[in-house]
Amino acid sequence: MNDEATYVCNVCGEEIVVPIDASAGWKQEYVEDCPVCCNPHVIHVDVDAEGNFRVWGEAE
Asked: Contact at 8 Å (CB) between 44 and 60?
């Protein structure tokens, strides 16, 4: 499994790389500022049984 994923900032449109830590659980949610425009986003990570994941960000 990769240890990084990307989401697109819905404020500035930049693709942002975020680390993935599967040991943190199957469903994760945390707040992180966009490193380009500094707007806060809620980052969601879903990890399935096979170790595949889905990541998306929402403006806070």
From this structure: no
DSSP 50: T
Q: In what order do the strands lie in the sheet with 53-59?
A: 27-33, 40-47, 53-59
Which tokens is 54 given? 């889905």
Domain limits of the chain?
Answer: 4-59
pLDDT in tens, the chain (60 residues): 558 999 999 999 999 999 888 788 899 999 999 999 999 999 999 988 888 889 999 998
Contacts of 37 (CB under 8 A, 6+ apart): 9, 11, 12, 14
